[in-house]
Amino acid sequence: MNLLDLLRTAVGNTFRSKLRTTLTVIAIFIGAFTITLTSAIGTGVGNYIDGQVASIGDSGSLTVTKAVEQSTDSGPAKYDPDASTQSVNRGPASFGYLSQADVDAVRGTAGIRSVRPAVALSPKYAEHGDGGKYVVTLSANAGELRADLAAGKQLDDDSRANQVILPTDDLRDLGLGSATAAVGKQLTFAVDDYQGTEHTLTATVVGVQNTSLFGGGAGANAALTDAMQAAQETGKPASIATSYASATATLDPGASVTTVKDRLSADGYTGQTIQDQLGQFQTVINGIVGVLNAFAVIALVAAGFGIVNTLLMSVQERTREIGLMKAMGMSGGKVYTLFSLEAVFIGFLGSAIGAGAAIGVGTVVSDVLAGSVLQDLPGLHILQFAPSSVVTVVLVVMLIAFLAGTLPARRAARQNPIEALRYE
Questions:
Q1: Hey, is 14 helix, strand or coil?
Q2: Distance, CA of 267 to CA of 111 (rounded, Å)
Q3: Does residue 127 contact residue 170 with C-beta atoms inside 8 Å?
Q4: Which residue of 184, 264, 367, 374 pairs with 271 in a disulfide if CB–CB is 3.0 to 4.6 A?
Q5: Which residues 6+ apart lie within 8 Å of 260 measured at CB?
Q6: What is the DSSP string of 141-154?
Q7: How crowded is the C-beta side of 309, counted as CA atoms within 13 Å?
Q8: pLDDT attached to residue 92
Q9: What are the Cα distances from residue 392, in Å, to 126, 212, 355, 395?
Q10: Residues 309-335: pLDDT tens digits?
């Protein structure tokens, strides 16, 4: 018998005991179905994050925070009059607020061209004409990031004009119409100063952005940020120092990001690129997908024992048949190959059906989520099936099936033809 004949015989023998084979295939189906779905989640989220990073490009900037020194004893830290007393303690994510002295120290780091501290803007409301007043979240210095635009252009931090970029969700309530129609219109922002006096600022809508990982609120360019910060701090006593949660450092052209990070670290600061920050999201996603895959592997291991049981029973039931085949000249190697092919076929059957079902179900679920729960994150398809990943799942399951079938196949190959023919 050649390989093709062995394959045909193996496929036919697989369905001798339909119920036993079906139950084994179902066990493999569950594992393959789960692994295919979890791999698709990792692919979908990974592609979305990569797309977000690609859309902003290499901004040549670092987000700088101050590291919190972990005391080796239980005593209080020594007082530093130039340091901010504010900090956020969240275990490994703990960081201290930056004082003006810290901002100046970061600005003096070699390789850094400029530093803009993170400012909290607190507009009371925004309005367009007589369309009504609405509460709008406004991010400072938003021109440092490239927005995923639905219309218009990016913020210009070099412009002296006040500019704002709005999310698509804010257009209707503010009476700005469509994304294209909103570009070029004027918005009035109201903000209270330190004494509670209201100030108003006017800004031009230069762009409309889709919601993304970088937020979906309105963003201000440098000119609007500085003007609103100045309005907010009007009347503020000089004795009250300002502190910042972070600062954005723009690097000199050609400066090494790694080198600048090392210099900041030596001075007690942490610098992260956008890619670094999104990499943390990816690490969490990969961890979750890994745990889910582990459960699927457990199901596949259980299915492997099902294959062992199925083929051992088959070897026992076909003892006389094996003896007859060997008596007619079939070698032990071909008998081994025959039963190994049966195991591999069972693995292929379960994995192919499981992967196919996962693709069908996952595609429907992904489309539904994209049009409902995830509609505010355009471009995010939570489940994406890469052909290479699907093929890998099928091949891995077939390998597990082959390994599971090794013991029954060896037992069949070692059958003594005389004793096998006498078997009752």
A1: helix
A2: 14
A3: no
A4: 264
A5: 62, 109, 110, 111, 112, 249, 251, 271
A6: TGGGS---EEEE--
A7: 13
A8: 47
A9: 53, 31, 11, 5
A10: 777 777 777 677 777 777 777 788 888
Residue 69: enclosing H or E segment and its boundaries? Answer: none
Q: What is the DSSP string of 329-356?
A: T--HHHHHHHHHHHHHHHHHHHHHHHHH
> How is residue 110 written in tokens?
């070699």
Structure tokens at 299: 């199901």
DSSP 170: G
CB 353 within 8 A of CB 25: yes
The 10s digit of each residue's pLDDT in 242-283 is 888 888 888 998 889 999 999 999 998 999 887 787 777 777
Amino acid found at 242: T
Q: Identify the helix (H) or strand (E) that includes residue 172.
A: helix 171-174
In terms of Cβ atoms closer than 10 Å to its own Cβ (0-12, 13-18, 19+), residue 174 is: buried
Give the position of tokens 């367009």: 128
pTM: 0.63
The token pair that represents 326 in the structure block? 């060997």
C-alpha dihedral, 66 to 68 to 69 to 75, nearest 10°: 140
- Do 98 and 267 touch, CB atoms closer than 8 A? no
Q: 164 near 207, Cβ under 8 Å?
A: no
